[in-house]
Design brief:
Length: 138
């Protein structure tokens, strides 16, 4: 894969943020939406930027911004806790692959993927970004 990034690195999380931002631009965000989302690897390591593996997405007045890496103890309205191994499994499977839905279900049942809060309007945006993320992950 040309241009693929190593999963879990700061550049990879930046690519994820760009993919989410581009999906938001394509689908649109309600102009009155205010929502913070934090996806973090519960067993994550420190990134080169001093933060931990993860991504923060903030939508204020319908405008989206993101940051690669998360602070220890950081919170948001929606928190997605995932193990690094589960994130790796999911980021190698395209959304149309039946194994993807099975892996998500198993991870949720096993507690390796937990979503606290409601993604609401951002759910379809995250879903649209997923396959692009898979295509750019090595």
């Amino acid at each position: 894969m040309t241009g693929a990034l190593v999963q879990g690195t700061a550049p990879w999380f930046a690519m994820v943020g760009v993919a989410i931002a581009e999906a938001a631009e394509r689908l649109g965000i309600p102009p009155d939406l205010n929502l913070s989302v934090l996806e973090r690897y519960v067993d994550g390591e420190r990134l080169d930027n001093g933060l931990f593996q993860g991504l923060r997405v903030d939508v204020v007045g319908g405008s989206l911004a993101f940051r690669s890496g998360v602070l220890a103890g950081e919170t948001a309205q929606v928190v997605i806790d995932v193990t690094a191994a589960t994130a790796r499994r999911l980021n190698l499977l395209l959304s149309a692959d039946p194994a993807y839905a099975q892996a998500v279900g198993k991870a949720m049942r096993d507690g390796d993927l937990r979503i606290h809060g409601d993604l609401g309007a951002l759910g379809p945006i995250f879903a649209l970004a997923h396959d692009r993320i898979v295509e750019q992950t090595c």
